[in-house]
Predict the 3D structure of the following.
Amino acid sequence: MLKLFSHDDRFLIQQLRSELEQAGIPHLIKNEYAGGAMGELPWQETQLEIWLVDEAWYDKAARIVSGLNHMSSTPDRWRCGVCEEENEGHFDLCWKCQASRVVNDN
Ligand SMILES: [Zn+2]
């Protein structure tokens, strides 16, 4: 058993699970606080862990994880609609004028 990935974002975990399933990589989900098998606690507000059943799969699985990390850690930059300052994608408010992020297609 080898821990592959942990995150409290259920959607990211579910995305990774489906990628692992498509690749045919055997895996388990563990909850950090439960210490047991999945399904024993609600998923909300708990950090989930994905473990590889067989660490021989690690190289392939790590490549899938790095693809996910790339997508989640480099969100698109956005331009404030009020002051036109450019902001990093992980900010929801403009760092300069605190205006809310407004998505536009320009
Ligand atoms: Zn602004």
Summary: The mean pLDDT is 80. Residues 80, 82-83, 85, 94, 96-97, 99 surround zinc ion (CB under 6 Å). The longest strand covers residues 2-7. Residues 58-73 form the longest helix (16 residues).
